[in-house]
């Protein structure tokens, strides 16, 4: 209503209601509507029509104060009627609804229309974040998606589907056979429609046809009025205001579309009818308002840089300022001009200046194909103008949904698609200007993906509306707004322009909607064919691609580090992938068969033309500019990929599509430059350019990019290498890698272009590149399956991988439409062939592994391919990792013990077209390089490495494998001009060149080199040189000169004009700079051949003289049937042997020469003269090696020390366990317990002034309260019906009991009759380490001052144990005392029971009997107090205070003994709920109950119980007068039979002075057992029926006088029944009899079992207590004998008890006073209570004591069942659907994670729930992420997921959306951690949640 207020302020006349229509119609709306409908139904309905028009004119008049809201004052003043827009709008809508329904009810009308819906399509439209499904098995288009309902109703079992969260929104395709296969339709949309749907009656929708045009026109007028050309941000807000006001109207339209097919076809008619539109909007008419509206429309058109065809003259001439007509003349620059120069010029300047340097934008002005595409729009129907405004308002969600909801109507779909295409250019312009381009992009794609995924539709629009022309032109225009001059190569004169990657357009990926549409339509064969046939389009497209050629140029920083690292490379790589590569893959997918050859020829032709233009534009001749690299060569890659496809699939002759030699030479330069730059980047030569250059090198080879980047580049180089002169190619490679100067025989050289420290890695880079170039077969003849296998093996060899990461790492065809689907059958079958699945592992406490795939042994053995691994590694360490794993495999399988070299793998054969590639291996240049390197390695020249040798041998071996077959043993002399390197080798075949001896080599060396000093073998006079040369002196060899010469020759050959200027052989660039020392020529004596070098190398590697012995001399078979495996393991020695064998096999001469060399006993390699510099480096190496060995040794020693330390650390003695029994000596030695402090390392006893403490973690726990009485855990609810009610939990039952007692009995007495702590009890656990309390304080102080961010809060007293780093938050003081005093106290005594009872009573009454007097404040007592405070603060107040009077001491008393109870009960649960396993405590050394008892006892004794009320008296003494107690008015005390016996035990024990005597302990237990047994009998008596009772009463009475009557349960039972029946306990049973009676007939056995079960929990807790107090081990036993074993262990069973006859629990009784008297006394208390409250009295007698172990909720097998129910479930607190729903796994409560909606006093709901449900511990399953999150107090951690997919992987955040299944082991681990309270210790990554979860 703000708008109404605005209208009032402006001063529009306010009327309370809109003007009513003419008086005749002023009755009610329904009657009017009925009247009109009748009028219109007549044959002559003109009158009716006019009447209706008049009415609509009134009701829907656009003269509403809407404009006032948008800020137009005149409009508001002009508006005649209107009580505020809201009211008027509603009124208008009401009218419309009435009119549509024609007088009937609107709802009935809707129902009637729905009946005629032929729902063949689902068409449900959703917006972002909706959960939908995609099934690849059923989809024809990859964009296919289904709503959850259709998906679950269809049958997709076994299909490849996944669930996903929609990013841009979408629509359900169910029922659309153009997009998906019919087999996948759901049940609703399978029925083919039209046959069974009746015809729509004419009069039903008649009114709609009249009313809707006016309604839509009204909407359009609103949109026109509301729009003001945005000049600033405020106007954007206005637009949103207009949209908010229009919400009801658009929603109304949306509801209409949901009525189904009948209504949609009416709407289609209305929207597309051109006549309607013309009549209503015929521009300036008589109505002023309509006229104004039309003007606004034209202004809006014009401001968008668009013209309205007819008005060109009028408007163009009047206002040239807007720039439309004038620009139209300029042609091409028109569209960009309107944006760039008119309205957004100010923005652009700012953009340009932001740190992008002074790069000027470039505008192109070559005329484009069709100006009209960009600048002209004419609207002929409502639909067209509606879309126009939708775009103008930047695609409001509601409008988009309405337009999409109409799509199931076929006619509409076509019309809308054409309209969309017509507005395409306008969409692009709006998108570029938009501030919210992300949202807008999503909305655009939301629409376009629905239109363009349909092949039939796309084809139709392509043919009728020039869709392809429009798209390409629009893309071109879009990129033209951000072009800059390219600085590649020739900076000054370059004519090439590239996109500027720093512009917002590229940085924010604004272009992606257009590109994604383009890719989408290219996936349709019919459309792609049109594109490939249209030469004009191809030219334009190559023009577009060339904008990206050479973008984001990197210049190497040589002096200082760049100050600003630009991150533009992200934009560049994304742009090349999306805008260039993906369309390329789309086109390639249609060039698969021979018939498509023509297409390839077209693309290749225009691609080469574009490349030629590019070379010309950058002035490129033959030398690339130094120190520059661009990773972006899309034109090269287009060319390469189409070539590859042509040869592979279309059987095209490669040479027919290759250019001339000169062009090939140019083509290879830039891709080669990238390969060399990669090596430079990895050699740290670009380090001054910052990290981003490394990022580029990684992205270039990364899995999503590699097959659009590095693979085509390498393939193109392979093609060039196979066609160019090999000597030229090889020398180019070494020159690009800058290692030419290194390739000299001399031991020293000058490198003019490379620092010495980079030489080695660059040489390795060059050789590795050659190996890759010659070994890789990706595009040279491998089939798709072989490629997939090779890729998979490479990835698996680097590391074990999960299934999803493998899918991600295997480069698939990046265009999703290519049909290679990840997860397709070939992927799975290849995976199962090469890898083994390692199931996920779960060690509690270990990290939980996911399911991994690891290579099979035979893969390591035969397929591991280091070349592929090197090609595919993003990080260099992965290569090492693969080699390490390979080494480990060989060691393990015993195939090779040492350090293996990368294995040599025989390659598959080349496709015939590429045979020329192997000529590289047989060219003299390469042989010279190999010879030189072998020599240098042998002579130990510097900067050579094992890697270099490995690559050299690899190349030699490749050459031998691929030698030409016809090598004759005769030397073939090569004719032709004498060339310098002919003096090295006679031929070009490697096999024969290997044996060629080279005697002397002439080298150029610095004058300082050692070679110069030596005498040359002959005098160096010139006449002598001739003779020397003939004897085999090899000339100085300059690779650079060679390459130049070759280049020149090729140029000359290709240019007929020989008079061209010949370039000098070496350009000045390569002569050494002046500072270098002079080079002189020296002649070295070599006298080696490659073979002799190899043999010497063998000796050198093996470290033995004459180590090589030709194997064929012993076994001639080797030569006849050589078994050379395809795949060989081994190191350098085996490699040399293999090569020599192959050489011998290939030629007899070689064999002979090898034998000869071996015969000459090789003289030892002469000791080299080592220069000082070399010596230095050698020493350095040696020192390094030694240092390394020392380090290894130290580490090993350290590890073993650590290990032994850990072993002892785990054994730290805690005092109660180590009890030496030295009864042999008469005088027992009193030795005090000794503790080690883990901080100061001193050992000693704990004393009062310097107490020692145990490191403990106190935490509140509600685990006990979660016990239930049934074994099966509750299930998590997954339907509305299932719910979990908490009233059968242990906590609830105890609460009810306490409140019941408090209702009827005295409060202080109630608080002694039960235990609390079932919820929020304090659990104490320790790691077993001790420290001095003063040391701990200083430790905490240092933690507090530590600035490092810890995972815990020191202020809350949290720390980690200094020794084992376990989390802790307090220190429990150890009580000073000796170990042996236990023995004194344990001596058996012969006192009678009566004496002991008296002693116990006396001890309890003696307050000062505690050794440490409280009055003297010692350190110990202070610490005891502070730890007690800690214990209290651990839990919340509500879990401590149960008293009616707040702060009463009884409360503290109750709390303290309950802490002991909680810890005992929890230990019992950790032992599995019983003590059958016996043995020491599970926590053994880790238990702190002893210390805890001391602390509690100290504090309990501060509160002495009045001797009057001490329950001990009631248990052991008879009262003279029973009635005297009942005389008081106040509430009575709790009857002793209602007391909880275990609580009594703890009270009695803690009230005694510590340490306790064993005999007193046993006495207390015996007394309490009598009470317990009586309670059991009483409960039994209530449980059975009246007849049973009378029968027992009778049988028991008979035996009453036998000798052991007091130990017979029958007698006691009958006596109890007799006593209790005096009251009203058993009466009133008529009403409730059925409830109480248990169905079983009570036999003596079942009664005995009942009694035992009733007493067992008490016996267990007592035995545990005895174990902790006196250190006795628990005996182990079978479950059925647990009772008797525990009873005898506790001393209840007389020692002489025989076990032959069946055991009877009553035999444990030992009555302190005559049983019948005391029972009478106990029953009397109950009797007097039940006289008034029989019901409650009965309920209190039956105590449920059989609790089962606690469990988390049981989860369903499949995660989807949880997800589908909860992700749409509304929260019960805020009734909204939470953004992050979560569910508690303990109680099943549904909560909003992080939801502000449910926040209470700054606590979010999860934190709050964790406090209420788990006393600070919460376990939640996050529904949308499938992850479990743990909240512990103020910290939280992500625990992981218990749902894994079929491959054993988690799917956090459901990104992959594959089906997930429960992993029972993981869930067990989670439950275990919950029960054992070890979340803090096991999970490492904790963080504070600040109450925000």
Task: Describe the structure in your own words.
The N terminus is likely disordered. The longest helix has 38 residues. Helix 10 packs parallel to helix 20. Helices cover 50% and strands 7% of the residues. The strands form twelve sheets. Strands 26-25-27-28-29-32 form a six-stranded antiparallel sheet. It has a three-stranded antiparallel sheet with strand order 3-2-4. The two termini are 36 Å apart. The protein is of the alpha+beta class and 1893 residues long.
Instruction: Give the class from helix and strand content and strand pairing.
Output: alpha+beta
Cα gyration radius (Å)? 47 Å
Number of helices: 77
| Uncertain stretches of 5 or more adjacent residues | 1-27, 62-85, 310-358, 365-369, 815-823, 966-981, 1013-1032, 1056-1076, 1164-1171, 1208-1230, 1378-1385, 1408-1415, ...
Strand content: 5-15%
Percent helix, as a range, is 40-55%
Notable traits:
1893 residues, alpha+beta, 6-stranded antiparallel sheet, 3-stranded antiparallel sheet, 77 helices, 32 strands, 50% helix, flat, disordered N terminus
How do you describe this structure in short?
With 1893 residues, this protein is α+β, with helices and mostly antiparallel strands. It has 77 helices and 32 strands.
Topology:
Layout: H1 2-10, H2 29-41, H3 46-59, H4 66-70, H5 73-78, H6 84-101, H7 106-114, E1 125-126, E2 131-135, E3 146-147, H8 148-153, E4 161-165, E5 170-171, H9 187-190, H10 206-226, H11 233-257, H12 261-272, H13 274-280, H14 288-303, H15 312-318, H16 324-330, H17 333-343, H18 345-353, E6 361-362, H19 371-375, H20 382-392, H21 397-405, H22 410-422, H23 424-433, H24 437-452, H25 455-465, H26 467-480, E7 483-485, E8 497-499, H27 504-507, H28 512-522, H29 525-533, H30 535-546, E9 554-555, H31 568-588, H32 597-617, E10 628-629, H33 634-649, H34 661-682, H35 691-701, H36 710-723, H37 726-736, H38 756-775, H39 784-798, H40 803-809, H41 825-834, E11 835-838, E12 852-855, H42 857-862, H43 866-872, H44 876-893, E13 904-905, H45 924-938, H46 946-961, H47 990-993, E14 998-1006, H48 1010-1013, H49 1022-1030, E15 1033-1034, H50 1039-1054, E16 1079-1088, H51 1090-1102, H52 1117-1120, E17 1127-1128, H53 1132-1146, H54 1148-1159, H55 1172-1209, E18 1235-1236, E19 1243-1244, E20 1252-1261, H56 1290-1304, H57 1307-1313, E21 1321-1332, H58 1333-1345, E22 1359-1360, ...
Parallel strand pairs: 14-15
Antiparallel strand pairs: 1-5, 2-3, 2-4, 6-7, 7-8, 9-10, 11-12, 13-17, 14-16, 18-19, 20-21, 20-24, 22-23, 25-26, 25-27, 27-28, 28-29, 29-32, 30-31
Helix pairs in contact: 2-3, 2-6, 3-10, 6-7, 6-10, 6-11, 10-11, 10-12, 10-20, 11-21, 16-17, 21-24, 23-24, 23-26, 24-28, 26-30, 28-31, 30-32, 31-33, 32-33, 33-36, 34-36, 34-38, 37-50, 38-46, 39-41, 39-43, 45-46, 45-51, 46-53, 51-53, 53-54, 60-66, 61-63, 62-63, 62-65, 62-70, 65-66, 66-68, 66-70, ...
């Amino acid at each position: 209503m703000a708008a109404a207020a605005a209208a009032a302020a402006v001063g529009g006349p306010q009327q309370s209601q809109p003007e009513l229509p003419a008086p005749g119609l002023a009755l009610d709306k329904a009657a009017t509507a009925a009247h009109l409908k009748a009028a219109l139904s007549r044959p002559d309905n003109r009158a009716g029509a006019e009447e209706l028009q008049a009415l609509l004119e009134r009701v829907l008049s656009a003269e509403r104060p809407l404009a006032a809201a948008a800020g137009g004052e005149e409009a508001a003043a002009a508006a005649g009627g209107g009580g505020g827009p809201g009211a008027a709008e509603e009124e208008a809508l009401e009218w419309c609804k009435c009119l549509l329904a024609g007088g009937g009810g609107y709802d009935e009308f809707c129902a009637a229309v729905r009946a005629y819906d032929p729902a063949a399509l689902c068409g449900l439209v959703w917006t972002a974040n909706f959960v939908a499904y995609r099934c690849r098995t059923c989809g024809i288009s990859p964009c296919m998606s289904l709503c959850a309902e259709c998906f679950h109703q269809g049958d997709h079992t076994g299909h490849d589907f996944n669930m996903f969260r929609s990013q841009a929104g979408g629509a359900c395709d169910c029922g659309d056979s153009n997009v998906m296969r019919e087999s996948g339709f759901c049940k609703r949309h399978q029925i083919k429609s039209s046959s069974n749907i009746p015809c729509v009656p004419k009069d039903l929708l008649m009114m709609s046809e009249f009313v809707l045009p006016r309604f839509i026109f009204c909407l359009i007028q609103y949109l026109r009025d509301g729009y003001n050309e945005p000049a600033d941000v405020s106007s954007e807000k206005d637009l949103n205001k207009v949209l908010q006001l229009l919400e009801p109207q658009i929603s109304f339209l949306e509801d209409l579309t949901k009525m189904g097919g009948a209504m949609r076809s009416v709407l289609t008619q209305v929207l597309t009818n051109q006549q309607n539109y013309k009549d209503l909007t015929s521009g300036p008419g008589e109505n002023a308002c309509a006229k104004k509206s039309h003007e606004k429309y034209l202004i809006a058109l014009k401001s968008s840089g668009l013209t309205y065809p007819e008005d060109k003259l009028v408007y163009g001439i009047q206002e040239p300022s807007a720039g439309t007509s004038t620009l139209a003349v300029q042609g091409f620059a028109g569209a960009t001009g309107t944006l760039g120069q008119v309205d957004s010029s100010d923005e652009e300047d700012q953009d340009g200046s932001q740190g992008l340097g002074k790069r000027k934008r470039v505008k192109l002005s070559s005329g484009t194909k069709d100006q009209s595409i960009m600048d002209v729009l004419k609207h002929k129907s409502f639909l067209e103008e509606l879309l126009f405004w939708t775009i103008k308002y930047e695609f409001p969600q509601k409008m988009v949904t309405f337009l999409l909801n109409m799509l199931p109507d076929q006619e509409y779909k076509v019309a809308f698609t054409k309209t969309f295409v017509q507005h395409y250019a306008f969409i692009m312009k709006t998108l570029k200007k938009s501030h919210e381009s992300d949202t807008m992009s999503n909305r655009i794609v939301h629409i376009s993906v629905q239109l363009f995924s349909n092949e039939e539709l796309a084809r139709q629009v392509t043919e009728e509306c020039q869709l392809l022309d429009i798209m390409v032109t629009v893309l071109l225009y879009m990129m033209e707004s951000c072009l800059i001059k390219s600085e590649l190569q020739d900076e000054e004169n370059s004519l090439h322009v590239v996109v500027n990657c720093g512009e917002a357009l590229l940085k924010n990926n604004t272009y992606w909607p257009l590109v994604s549409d383009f890719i989408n339509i290219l996936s349709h064969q019919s459309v792609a064919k049109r594109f490939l046939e249209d030469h004009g389009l191809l030219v334009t497209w190559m023009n577009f691609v060339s904008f990206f050629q050479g973008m984001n140029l990197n210049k190497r920083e040589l002096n200082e580090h760049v100050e600003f690292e630009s991150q533009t490379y992200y934009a560049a790589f994304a742009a090349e992938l999306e805008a260039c590569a993906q369309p390329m893959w789309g086109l390639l997918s249609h060039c698969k068969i021979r018939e498509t050859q023509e297409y390839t020829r077209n693309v290749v032709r225009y691609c080469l033309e574009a490349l030629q233009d590019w070379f010309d534009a950058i002035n490129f001749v033959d030398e690339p500019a130094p120190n520059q690299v661009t990773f972006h060569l899309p034109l090269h890659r287009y060319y390469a990929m189409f070539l590859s496809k042509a040869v592979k699939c279309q059987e095209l002759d490669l040479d027919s599509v290759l250019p001339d030699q000169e062009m090939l030479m140019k083509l290879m330069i830039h891709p080669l430059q990238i390969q060399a730059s990669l090596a430079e980047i990895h050699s740290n030569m670009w380090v001054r350019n910052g990290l981003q250059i490394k990022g580029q090198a990684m992205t270039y080879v990364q899995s999503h990019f590699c097959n659009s980047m590095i693979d085509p580049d390498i393939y193109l180089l392979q093609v060039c290498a196979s066609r160019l002169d090999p000597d030229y190619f090889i020398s180019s490679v070494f020159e690009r890698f800058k290692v030419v100067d290194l390739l000299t025989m001399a031991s020293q050289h000058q490198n003019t272009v490379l620092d010495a420290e980079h030489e080695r890695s660059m040489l390795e880079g060059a050789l590795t590149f050659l190996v890759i170039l010659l070994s890789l077969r990706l595009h040279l003849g491998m089939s798709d399956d072989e490629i997939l296998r090779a890729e998979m093996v490479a990835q698996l060899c680097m590391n074990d991988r999960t299934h999803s990461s493998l899918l991600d790492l295997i480069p698939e065809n990046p265009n999703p439409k290519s049909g290679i689907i990840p997860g397709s059958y070939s992927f799975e079958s290849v995976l199962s062939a090469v890898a083994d699945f390692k199931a996920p592992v779960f060690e509690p406490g270990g990290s939980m592994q996911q399911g991994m795939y690891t290579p099979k042994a035979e893969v390591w053995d035969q397929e591991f391919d280091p070349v592929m691994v090197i090609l595919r590694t993003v990080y260099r360490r992965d290569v090492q990792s693969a080699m390490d794993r390979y080494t480990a495999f060989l060691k393990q399988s015993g195939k090779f013990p040492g350090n293996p070299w990368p294995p040599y793998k025989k390659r598959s054969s080349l496709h015939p077209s590429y045979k020329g590639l192997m000529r590289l291996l047989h060219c003299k240049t390469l042989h010279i390089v190999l010879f030189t390197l072998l020599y240098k390695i042998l002579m130990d020249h510097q900067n050579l490495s094992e890697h270099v040798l490995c690559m050299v041998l690899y190349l030699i071996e490749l050459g031998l494998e691929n030698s030409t077959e016809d090598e004759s043993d005769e030397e073939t002399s090569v004719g032709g001009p004498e060339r310098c390197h002919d003096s090295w080798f006679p031929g070009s075949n490697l096999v024969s060149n290997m044996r060629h001896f080279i005697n002397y080599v002439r080298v150029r060396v610095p004058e300082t080199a050692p070679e110069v000093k030596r005498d040359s073998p002959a005098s160096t006079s010139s006449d002598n040189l001739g003779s020397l040369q003939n004897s085999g002196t090899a000339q100085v060899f300059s690779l650079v000169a060679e390459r130049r010469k070759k280049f020149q020759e090729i140029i000359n050959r290709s240019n007929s004009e020989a008079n061209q200027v010949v370039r000098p052989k070496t350009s000045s660039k390569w002569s050494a700079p002046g500072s270098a020392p002079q080079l002189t020529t020296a002649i070295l004596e070599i006298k080696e051949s490659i073979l002799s070098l190899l043999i010497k190398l063998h000796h050198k590697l093996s470290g033995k003289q004459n180590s090589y012995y030709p194997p064929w001399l012993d076994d001639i078979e080797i030569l006849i049937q050589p078994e050379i495996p395809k795949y060989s393991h081994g190191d350098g020695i085996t490699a040399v042997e293999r090569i020599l064998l192959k050489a011998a096999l290939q030629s007899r001469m070689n064999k002979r020469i090898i034998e000869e060399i071996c015969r000459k006993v090789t003289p030892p390699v002469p000791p080299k003269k080592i220069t000082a510099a070399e010596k230095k480096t050698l020493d350095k190496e040696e020192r390094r090696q030694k240092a390394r060995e020392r380090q290894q040794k130290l580490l090993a020693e350290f590890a073993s020390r650590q290990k032994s330390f850990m072993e002892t650390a785990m054994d730290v003695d805690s005092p109660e366990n180590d009890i030496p029994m030295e009864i042999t000596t008469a005088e027992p030695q009193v030795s005090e317990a000794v503790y080690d402090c883990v901080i100061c390392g001193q050992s000693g006893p704990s004393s009062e002034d310097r107490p020692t403490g145990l490191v403990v973690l106190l935490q509140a726990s509600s685990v006990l309260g979660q016990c239930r009485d049934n074994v099966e855990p509750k299930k998590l609810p997954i339907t509305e019906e299932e719910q979990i009610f908490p009233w059968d939990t242990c906590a609830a039952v105890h609460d009810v009991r306490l409140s019941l007692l408090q209702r009827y009995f005295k409060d202080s007495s109630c608080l002694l009759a039960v235990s609390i702590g079932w919820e929020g009890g304090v659990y104490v656990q320790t790691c077993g380490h001790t420290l001095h309390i003063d040391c701990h304080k200083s430790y905490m102080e240092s933690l507090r001052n530590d600035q490092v961010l810890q995972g815990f809060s020191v202020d809350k007293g949290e720390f980690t144990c200094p020794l084992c780093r376990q989390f802790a938050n307090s220190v429990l003081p150890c009580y000073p005392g000796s170990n042996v005093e236990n023995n004194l106290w344990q001596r058996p005594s012969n006192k009678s029971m009566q004496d002991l009872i008296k002693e116990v009573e006396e001890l309890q009454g003696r307050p000062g009997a505690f050794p440490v007097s409280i009055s003297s404040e010692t350190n110990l007592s202070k610490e005891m107090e502070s730890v007690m405070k800690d214990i209290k603060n651990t839990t919340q107040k509500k879990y401590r205070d149960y008293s009616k009077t707040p702060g009463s001491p009884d409360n503290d008393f109750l709390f303290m003994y309950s802490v002991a109870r909680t810890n005992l009960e929890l230990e019992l649960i950790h032992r599995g709920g019983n003590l059958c396993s016996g043995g020491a405590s599970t926590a053994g050394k880790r238990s702190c109950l002893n210390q805890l008892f001391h602390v509690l006892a100290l504090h309990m004794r501060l509160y002495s119980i009045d001797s009057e009320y001490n329950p001990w008296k009631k248990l052991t003494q008879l009262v003279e007068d029973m009635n005297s107690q009942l005389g008081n008015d106040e509430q009575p005390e709790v009857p002793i039979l209602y007391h909880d016996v275990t609580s009594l035990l703890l009270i009695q024990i803690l009230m005694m002075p510590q340490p306790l005597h064993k005999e007193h302990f046993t006495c207390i237990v015996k007394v309490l057992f009598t009470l317990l047994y009586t309670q059991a009998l009483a409960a039994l008596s209530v449980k059975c029926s009246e007849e049973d009772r009378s029968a027992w009463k009778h049988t028991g009475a008979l035996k009453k006088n036998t000798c052991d009557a007091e130990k017979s349960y029958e007698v006691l039972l009958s006596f109890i029944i007799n006593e209790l029946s005096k009251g009203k306990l058993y009466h009133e049973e008529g009403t409730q009899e059925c409830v109480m009676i248990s169905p079983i007939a009570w036999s003596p056995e079942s009664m005995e079992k009942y009694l035992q079960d009733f007493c067992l929990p008490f016996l267990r807790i007592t035995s545990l207590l005895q174990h902790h107090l006196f250190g006795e081990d628990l005996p182990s036993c079978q479950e059925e004998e647990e009772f008797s074993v525990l009873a005898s262990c506790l001393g209840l069973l007389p020692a002489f008890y025989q076990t032959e006859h069946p055991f009877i629990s009553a035999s444990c009784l030992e009555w302190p006073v005559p049983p019948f008297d005391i029972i009478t006394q106990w029953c009397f208390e109950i009797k007097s209570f039940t006289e008034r409250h029989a019901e409650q009295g009965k309920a209190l007698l039956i105590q449920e004591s059989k609790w089962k172990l606690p469990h988390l909720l049981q989860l369903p097998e499949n995660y989807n069942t949880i997800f589908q129910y909860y992700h749409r479930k509304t929260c019960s607190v805020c009734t909204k659907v939470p953004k992050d729903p979560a569910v508690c796994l303990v109680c099943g409560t549904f909560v909003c994670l992080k939801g502000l909606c449910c926040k209470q006093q700054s606590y979010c709901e999860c934190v709050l729930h964790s406090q209420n449900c788990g006393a600070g511990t919460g376990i939640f399953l996050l529904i949308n992420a499938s992850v479990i999150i743990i909240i512990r107090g103020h910290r939280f951690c992500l625990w992981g997921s218990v749902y894994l997919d079929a491959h054993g992987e988690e799917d956090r955040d459901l990104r992959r959306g594959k089906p997930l299944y429960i992993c029972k082991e993981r869930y067990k681990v989670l439950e275990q951690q919950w029960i054992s309270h070890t979340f803090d210790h096991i999970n490492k990554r904790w963080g504070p949640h600040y109450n925000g979860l």
